[in-house]
Structures are given as C-alpha cells and as structure tokens.
From TrEMBL:
This protein's name: Probable alcohol dehydrogenase AdhA
Catalytic reaction(s) noted: a primary alcohol + NAD(+) = an aldehyde + NADH + H(+); a secondary alcohol + NAD(+) = a ketone + NADH + H(+)
A cellular-component GO term for this protein: cytoplasm
Keyword Metal-binding in record: yes
Taxonomic superkingdom: Bacteria
InterPro entries in UniProt: ADH-like_N (IPR013154), ADH_Zn_typ-2 (IPR014187), GroES-like_sf (IPR011032), NAD(P)-bd_dom_sf (IPR036291)
Annotated Alcohol dehydrogenase-like N-terminal domain residues: 38-148
Region feature Disordered, mapped onto this chain: 1-39
NCBIfam families membership: adh_fam_2
Length: 351
C-alpha cells in the first residue's frame, strides 16, 4: 500500500510555540500540509487524541522541547490512510493507536534484554516528532498498536498512554495478590490503574485533592477516598504517586507498611523534601521510578483492558479547544481523562 499524495489543503492542529505557564498561551494554532510517511511509517487520520499531563509539562516547559513548534499528543487513535516504503502490518482503513514510545535502537543492552523503555536512543511521539493534536499524523508502523474498529475512538485514546503507563506503574509498585494499594492523584492514568487493580482483587485507597476525583474513585469501587496529604485508613502494601508533587513522596512512604513499595509514575516531579530514613525507608520500604513503557507493556495492558472491560471516564473537547483542555488539566478541572476530537475533514489521498 504505497503512499501517493498528501495534498488535501491545509490541515488544522496545534504546536508548542514558546513554552511557559498555560495562561501565557504556549500552544499555537497551525495550518499545515499533511505529512508524508517515510520508510516504515503509516499516515493516519486522527479520530481522537487523549490529553496527557506530559503534554502539559511540554507546553509549560517542565520538559525541554526537543524541536521547535512540535505538535503534542501521544494518545492517538486513527485510521490508516497510506504508508511509506517497507511497511505491511496495516492496511488502509485499519484502526491503529500511537503511544508515547515511538522508537528505540533495538540493539543496545536495554533493548536486547526486554527493557527498551530505558534505551538511550529512544524517541517519543509529541516530543521528538509531531503527535496527535492534529487532523492527520504519521506513526512508525512497528510502534503502533492495532485497535478494534467498532469501539468509540475517544474511549480508546486514554488507554494509549494513561492506561499503559498506569499499568507499568502498577507492576512497578509490586502490589501483592489481594494487597492494599494507595493512589496519590486520581486523573487519567490513576483511574485506569485503579480498575486493573480492583479487577485483580486489590483494596484501593485514593488520596487526591479533587472532590470530583474522590467521588469518581468511590464510584469505581475504591474502599476510601481522602485528601492528598491525609493518611489512608490502613497501612499500604504498595502506592503509586501520579500527582507530579514531590512533597507527597514522604507522605506516601510514611503510609507504607513494612516491605511496601512506592512507584512514582510521572515523567516530571517537583523537588522531593529531605527524607527521614527511619520513618520513610527503613524496614525495607522501596522507592521506585517509572520510565516510559515497553511495547510489551502496551500489548499486555490493551489485552487486560479488553478482558476486564476497563472504561475510561472522559471529557471530550473539539480539536480547536486544545488550549482549553490543557488549561482545564492544569487547574484540575478534568474528571478522568480529556480527549480531543478532530472535525470530520476530507482525507489526504493515498493509495
């Protein structure tokens, strides 16, 4: 299925212009020609793109941009329009998903040992290459996921990063069977990880500042939902910190039982206060970070989501309100996950 043409007039989207506080308008509207897929790439008409806190970090400058005027977005659901040379996994019209991890070297010791998330040459969608805050984008075929064609694309979108990273964080938290899990912060990623943990028989306690998020947690089956700095009602076997707030690290460590593990899920975290060894780490408590994901994580999570029937709670925004979606995310006005939905537009011609 060779790519033939991508000339369908200018297509709308957004790019990070000057990173800064969201109130300064770091996102700029763009009109661009459709991209042309290169070797190993597929051209995709975006049906939905989730809005991740990583997009906010990029827009506000917490993450240094890797290139000028990059289109954010790495929770991409769309239909294949065409492909470049050397492709063959997907046919035109197939629904695919694009996630954060976009490429690795494949030959370093991390890639060879199944830890491609640690590859020093790894690249990322919406950071090293344009992402899904657009009507059309390009994805590397080998890092795209096949998705069910009959599902709501807006409900699939958060699974592609929030879900995958939450799943990896859950595994990194070393939650024992039937264990007690604490979730600090309860946004797009945490509310999906909670559903996996509950389906696997865990007791889940949610600690978050948002009253709406606490109500959602209880609706999903959490045993308790309290403020972010409150103590859970019982000691925790495991905890995951989703909120990018370093002050919560000692709070979560202090809530762990002996031998418990805290996994920090975010790509960015504010400074961590000085820890007290006896109170926070002694008795074999562990503090772990979470870095990106492997494609195996993605496949495992998407199969788990299908099997246990995970349903994201979403707020839809039209693509032309991407700036509002990021502002709402920054202000904790999004309950669950925000998802951008592009307008129906003529597709670039591809064969």
């Amino acid at each position: 299925m060779a790519f033939e043409s991508a000339d369908a007039g200018d297509l709308g989207g957004w790019a990070v212009d000057e990173p800064g506080p969201i109130a300064t308008g770091p996102l700029r509207r763009t009109r661009r020609k459709a991209p042309r897929p290169g070797p190993g790439e597929v051209l995709v008409r975006v049906e939905a793109c989730g809005v991740c806190r990583t997009d906010l970090h990029l827009a506000e400058g917490d993450l240094r941009p890797h290139r000028p005027m990059t289109v954010p977005g790495h929770e991409i659901v769309g239909r294949v329009l065409g492909s470049g040379p050397g492709t063959g996994r997907f046919a035109r019209g197939d629904r695919v998903g694009g996630a954060w991890l976009r490429g690795t070297c494949g030959v370093c010791r991390y890639c060879r040992s199944g830890r491609e998330n640690l590859c020093p040459s790894s690249v990322y969608t919406g950071w090293d290459a344009d992402g899904g805050f657009a009507e059309v984008t390009v994805l590397p075929e080998e890092f795209a996921y096949p998705l069910p064609g009959g599902a709501d694309p807006a409900e699939l979108a958060p699974l592609l990063c929030a879900g995958i990273i939450g799943y990896r964080a859950l595994r990194r938290s070393a939650l024992p069977p039937g264990g007690r899990l604490g979730l600090y912060g309860f946004g797009g990623s945490a509310h999906l990880a909670a559903q996996v943990a509950l389906a696997e028989g865990a007791t889940v306690h949610v600690l978050t500042r948002s009253a709406a998020a606490r109500r959602l947690a209880l609706d999903l089956g959490a045993s308790s939902a309290r403020g972010g700095y409150d103590a859970p009602p019982e000691p925790l076997d495991s905890a995951i910190l989703f909120a990018p707030v370093g002050d919560l690290v000692p709070v979560a460590l202090a809530a762990l039982d002996r031998g418990g593990t805290l996994a920090v899920a975010g790509i960015h975290l504010s400074d961590i206060p000085v820890l007290d060894y006896q109170r926070h780490l002694f008795q074999e408590r562990e503090l772990r970070s979470v870095t990106s994901n492997t494609r195996a994580d993605g496949r495992d999570f998407l199969e788990t989501a299908r099997r246990v029937g995970i349903r994201p709670t979403i707020t839809r925004y039209p693509l032309d309100r991407a700036d509002r979606a990021l502002a709402d995310l920054a202000a904790d006005r999004v309950n669950g996950a925000a998802v951008l939905v592009p307008p129906t537009a003529p597709s670039p011609t591809a064969g």
